[in-house]
Automatic annotation (TrEMBL):
Keyword flag Transcription regulation: no
GO CC terms in record: anaphase-promoting complex; spindle
Alphabetized UniProt keyword annotations: Cell cycle, Cell division, Cytoplasm, Cytoskeleton, Mitosis, Nucleus, Phosphoprotein, Repeat, TPR repeat, Ubl conjugation pathway
Record-stated family: Belongs to the APC5 family.
Protein's name in the database: Anaphase-promoting complex subunit 5
Principal location listed in the UniProt entry: cytoplasm
Anaphase-promoting complex subunit domain span: 254-353
Functional summary from the UniProt entry: Component of the anaphase promoting complex/cyclosome (APC/C), a cell cycle-regulated E3 ubiquitin ligase that controls progression through mitosis and the G1 phase of the cell cycle. The APC/C complex acts by mediating ubiquitination and subsequent degradation of target proteins: it mainly mediates the formation of 'Lys-11'-linked polyubiquitin chains and, to a lower extent, the formation of 'Lys-48'- and 'Lys-63'-linked polyubiquitin chains. The APC/C complex catalyzes assembly of branched 'Lys-11'-/'Lys-48'-linked branched ubiquitin chains on target proteins.
InterPro entries, per database record: Apc5, Apc5_dom, Apc5_N, TPR-like_helical_dom_sf
Domain Anaphase-promoting complex subunit 5 N-terminal residue range list: 30-167
Length: 756
């Protein structure tokens, strides 16, 4: 069957209209696009000293991607040349026009003249240069063409030039449309643009070996470091299918197809492409040539290992375990220690889904260091630190372990793991409630990775580490009331990680959480309730917890209590200590609202014990504040003030603005309650001090637009001013309270009967 693209592309491996399986048997063949490049090089040599230094530099930088990249339409090539040197672009166009509108002998003469570039004592082009090698490959490929193939090449060149002329004619006609035909003209233009855009990003014929290798390596690098700059999944798959149509045994194309399928979470296609990759690797003999007799077995064991990783990624743990056992068996038979270490790391990942064990991980780190696998050893240390952070180990010991891994990173120039380590430190400091330290680590990573557009491989600014750090940064700004800055960070995240990218779920969750907190602060519970579904889709535990918070705010106490109890049992089962403590604090608040203050005490003591056991300092401070409020309600404000002194400092240093306001409000309540037994003069001083603390709390609440808390503070201040006989200040607070009270009426709960 004759090839569809035979009339446009001239692969010397074609005989009788059939493409041979080994389409990359020859490195290059002549195409109309490459003839346009040859004309560009010829005109560049003719221009010589007429070109300025800046123009020559621009053209030299342009040449390499043009030579290595896939074929492109003439219009796009002309535009690229015009940006560097408009005069040269005009010369190239005229030369191509003369050749396309002339005779066949003009093309023959052009190729004969190309050889003159290498003659003379000082040739225009050196034979061993990049341009020289390209010219020699094209001359050689042209000389090998038969007469019929030369004629087809000339016909294709005419068609290539005529397509560009037609497009220019269409563009000119569109510009001459009248106002009455403008809408119709735009629609026609859009219809014509669709195939042209596809033509610009794709090549409708077979790529040469160098073009295919360049295309695959470029796309694979972009998928790893900057997915937004890579082709879309559909476009990339179309390109890969085109490559595989001309060479089904091109193993690297199958592997890139596997990576592309992972982007869209396509289990079937990714498994299919992965198996085809290793099948072609064995059939082509590439592994056997480089690894001797072990090449076949090596492909099999790494195929099983990659298959296990694929199943683990999609949550198919049973299939992953079977594939991993197969990989271990083959690796043991071949005595492949490197493969066994990778298997050991994946075995730990699979087993931690069932039970927590550091034994396998520690053994993996030691063995990886022994066999000189720094990348694997560093990943093991990172996983070990993460596990021990959740187990409540001291922060200084974890940072020492990360320091040891950083030495490995810098010693072996593992830039990707440096980013992961900094992101890990940011998350650990956030877990321990040290927002200032987390902010410092986040800024460290951001200063290392510039937000400006950079070349791939120089700085990796679109990796998961970068996304994690930016999400933490957005949440930190939102907690401090800088919602505009948080919105800007999230906007930048949406640009860097579009919704269809693999790390988009990170910023989606943080965006929903920030919107939820703002809606709760503003008293818009119906909006907060509508956001719960989105949070649940991204993180079920966070979604259930926030649903309980909404129910609690709407005074649906029994429903909230049932939900929190179920969530508590689940979190205890999966050992999510941070969420367990948060749930216990919410349950205690439910008991306060139900006037069961004594029942709340054991719950708070349990939360305090857990937070101290797992070194969660910030949660421990919040729990102490809740205990102080319980003591205030139970009639021992002096004791409440004493324990507040130990807990308020971490909250003011590292806490969210809302928590700072609640802490200062609680201090003022305790001061007023303690002043009942004071002498008149001392009582006045205590009340004035409480008013100052209330002013500070009011500032914090206003920063996050928390109207309900502002209303409570104003009510309390009005009462204090009335007691002190300050009528003007009392009336001002009463007026502001009335405005907020009309906007946010009470729901049957006493105003000053809650910590928050």
């Amino acid at each position: 069957m004759a090839s569809v693209h035979e009339s446009l592309y001239f692969n010397p491996m074609m005989t009788n209209g059939v493409v041979h399986a080994n389409v990359f048997g020859i490195k290059d063949w002549v195409t109309p696009y490459k003839m346009a490049l040859l004309v560009l090089l010829s005109e560049l040599g003719r221009a010589g000293a007429q070109l300025g230094l800046l123009e020559r530099r621009r053209l030299n930088r342009l040449l390499l991607p043009l030579l290595q990249g896939p074929d492109m339409p003439l219009s796009r090539l002309r535009k690229a040349i015009e940006e560097s040197c408009p005069h040269l672009a005009s010369s190239v166009h005229i030369r191509l026009k003369l050749m396309a509108e002339g005779e066949l002998k003009d093309m023959e003469q052009f190729f004969d003249d190309l050889s003159d570039s290498f003659t003379g004592t000082e040739p225009e082009v050196h034979k061993t240069s990049v341009v020289g090698l390209f010219l020699r490959h094209m001359i050689l490929a042209y000389n090998k063409l038969s007469f019929s193939q030369v004629y087809k090449l000339y016909t294709a060149l005419q068609q290539y030039f005529q397509n560009d002329e037609k497009k220019n004619g269409i563009d000119e006609n569109d510009m001459e449309l009248t106002n009455t035909e403008e809408l119709e003209g735009k629609m026609e233009k859009e219809e014509l643009d669709v195939p042209l855009r596809e033509e610009e990003i794709s090549c409708s014929g077979p790529l040469s070996q160098k073009q295919a290798e360049y295309f695959l390596s470029q796309q694979a690098s972009l998928l790893k470091n900057d997915e937004t700059k890579a082709l879309t999944p559909a476009s990339l798959q179309k390109e890969l299918n085109n490559l595989l149509k001309f060479n089904p045994d091109f193993a690297e194309a199958h592997y890139l197809s596997y990576l592309n399928s992972l982007r869209v979470q396509d289990v079937f296609s990714s498994t299919h492409s992965l198996l085809h990759y290793f099948d072609r690797l064995i059939l082509t003999g590439a592994e056997s040539k480089s690894n001797g007799d072990e090449g076949y077995g090596r492909s099999l064991r790494y195929a099983a290992l990659n298959l296990a990783a694929l199943h683990c990624r999609f949550g198919h743990y049973q299939q992953a375990e079977l594939a991993l056992q197969e990989a271990i068996r083959i690796a043991q038979e071949s005595n492949d220690h490197v493969c066994l270490q990778h298997c050991l790391s994946w075995l730990y990942i699979l087993e931690q889904k069932i039970f927590d064990s550091c034994v396998l991980l520690e053994h993996s780190v030691n063995k990886s260091l022994h066999f000189g696998l720094p990348y694997l050893a560093s990943l093991g240390i990172q996983s070990l630190v993460q596990q021990r952070a959740f187990a409540g180990k001291a922060a200084n010991k974890l940072m020492d372990a990360l320091k040891d891994s950083d030495l490995l990173h810098w010693k072996h120039s593992l830039s990707e793991l440096i980013d992961i380590s900094i992101a890990q430190k940011t998350a650990i400091w956030r877990l321990y409630g040290r927002s200032t330290m987390a902010l410092q680590q986040a800024q460290t990573l951001l200063s290392m990775n510039s937000l400006e557009a950079v070349n791939v491989g120089v700085q990796q600014n679109n990796t998961e580490s970068f996304a994690v750090v930016l999400c933490h940064l957005a949440e930190l700004h939102a907690e401090q009331g800088y919602f505009a800055a948080a919105s800007e960070i999230l906007k930048h995240l949406k640009e860097r990680f579009p919704p269809n990218s693999q790390h988009a779920q990170l910023w989606m969750l943080f965006d929903q959480k920030i919107q939820f907190e703002r809606a709760m602060n503003d008293g818009r519970y119906h909006i907060a309730d509508s956001l719960v579904a989105g949070i649940t889709a991204l993180n079920s535990i966070e979604g259930v917890y926030r649903k309980a918070i909404v129910l609690k705010a709407q005074n649906q106490m029994s429903e909230a209590h049932k939900l929190l109890q179920k969530l508590l049992i689940h979190c205890q089962k999966i050992k999510n200590t941070e969420m367990v403590i948060s749930v216990l604090l919410s349950i205690a608040e439910l008991y306060w609202r139900s006037s069961c203050h004594t029942i709340a005490l054991p719950v708070l003591l349990q939360a305090l014990a857990l937070s101290r056991e797992y070194s969660l300092q910030y949660l421990a401070s919040k729990t102490v504040l809740n205990l102080a409020f319980s003591q205030l309600i139970l009639g021992i404000p002096e004791q409440a003030l004493n324990i507040l002194q130990t807990a308020i400092e971490p909250v003011l240093a590292h806490g969210a603005v809302l928590d700072k306001g609640c802490a200062m409000f609680l201090v003022a309540k305790c001061q007023v309650a303690s002043a009942a037994s004071y002498t008149p003069q001392k009582k006045i001083e205590a009340l004035e001090s409480a008013i100052l603390n209330l002013n500070e709390a009011k500032t914090y609440f206003a920063k996050v637009d928390c109207k309900e808390q502002l209303r409570d503070v104003l009510y309390f201040q009005a009462r204090l001013f009335h007691t002190l006989g300050k009528t003007q200040e009392r009336n001002k607070c009463a007026m502001l309270f009335r405005q907020l009270h009309q906007e946010l009426p009470a729901h049957g709960v006493p105003l000053i009967n809650a910590f928050k």
